[in-house]
Automatic annotation (TrEMBL):
Keywords: Membrane, Metal-binding, Signal, Transmembrane, Transmembrane helix, Zinc, Zinc-finger
Transferase is among the record's keywords: no
GO molecular function, one term: zinc ion binding
Protein's organism: Nezara viridula (Southern green stink bug)
Name of the protein in its database record: RING-type domain-containing protein
Entries under PANTHER family matching the protein: E3 UBIQUITIN-PROTEIN LIGASE ATL42 (PTHR46539), RING-TYPE DOMAIN-CONTAINING PROTEIN (PTHR46539:SF23)
Stretches assigned to the RING-type domain: 228-269
Cell compartments where the protein resides: Membrane
Signal peptide: 1-18
GO cellular component, one term: membrane
Keyword Cell inner membrane: no
Domain of life of the organism encoding this protein: Eukaryota
Membrane-crossing residue ranges in chain numbering: 158-181
Length: 304
């Protein structure tokens, strides 16, 4: 149910602007019920034999001393004319049958407060009523016993409370959904900022690792570490190598991607980035609280 419908229902029930009624009609075969709106006139309940008056633009004067309830269509003449005809026929109520939504007709009756009959609107095709008309005639129509009862105050209170609760749930749910969406956006933004800051700090740190070219095949590096532990290829003259604080040597082109992913020495697992001043990988809060400018300044002050 949309929020404007909930507000309208709560308003109508709270102010008593409309009263829902249940119409019950019984025949020799079955019982028929329908919900309608009590528009005004004589207070409910109303009881009588059904009288189908068609457009009911003229009083029918049914030949019976028993109370009747007139069913009529809303066309061909005014509502006031039909209500006056119901009064002349001594009806206890008049029920207007609408084949479609009747909201546009609800305020069309001018003198409803002065009438002596109960005025009710229902949205029900005429053929549904005619199915339950009894075989015994009453004037110009057919008759069967029926009763119209107004729901008690407890039912109205229940409907009002239900409408208010539904409205509160709708509003609270909408507010929570908006807050949750905003919170998730903030979390995603924080993670992106954290990742960008960490990646930048790692890249700057890696660039500070000492590197040089192999210029002589007799170098001790080639003698002690003839193979790079990352790519498993032998060192060659004029290749660029990087030396870690743990004294292990690797190709620069192999070591830098490795440290970006794993931070530690491929051989001894020493946390190289932590050695150069970055916090441990598991400490997200430390990474967040370290200003990037301070990290860069610290690294630039280190000797190469």
């Amino acid at each position: 149910m949309a929020i404007h419908q909930l507000l309208l229902l709560a308003s109508l029930l709270g102010t008593g602007a409309c009263t829902m009624v249940r119409i019950q009609m019984s025949s020799s075969l079955r019982t028929w019920t329908a919900n309608g709106i009590f528009e005004g006139g004589r207070s409910l309940p109303a009881t009588g034999y059904i009288f189908y008056g068609g457009d009911y633009c003229q009083a029918s004067s049914p030949s019976s001393d028993r109370s009747i309830v007139v069913f009529a269509t809303p066309d061909n003449c005014s509502f006031d004319t039909k209500i006056r005809n119901a009064e002349n026929d001594n009806a206890s109520a008049i029920v207007f049958l609408f084949d479609r939504e009747f909201s546009s007709y609800e305020r069309a009756i001018k003198y409803i407060s002065n009438t002596t009959v109960s005025v009710i609107f229902i949205s029900q095709p005429q053929k549904e009523i005619l199915k339950f008309i009894d075989t015994s005639r009453l004037g110009g129509g057919y008759a069967t016993a029926m009763e119209i009862n107004q729901p008690d105050s407890q039912s109205r209170k229940f409907l009002l409370v239900s409408a208010v609760i539904s409205l509160v749930i709708f509003v609270v749910g909408g507010c929570y959904g908006a807050w949750y969406y905003h919170d998730q956006i903030e979390v995603m933004n924080d993670r992106e900022k954290l990742q960008t800051s960490e990646e930048c700090a790692i890249e700057t740190t890696i660039e500070k690792i000492p590197s040089r070219a192999l210029m002589d095949s007799s170098e001790k590096v080639i003698e002690d570490y003839n193979t790079c532990a990352v790519c498993f290829e032998n060192y060659k003259l004029f290749e660029i190598i990087s030396s870690l604080p743990c004294s292990h040597i690797f190709h620069k082109s192999c070591l830098h991607p490795w440290l970006t992913e794993r931070r530690s020495c491929p051989l001894c697992k020493m946390d190289i980035l932590k050695h150069y001043g970055l916090p441990a990988a598991s400490s997200e809060e430390s990474i967040i609280n370290i200003p990037l400018d301070d990290t860069v300044s610290y690294l630039e002050s280190m000797p190469i």
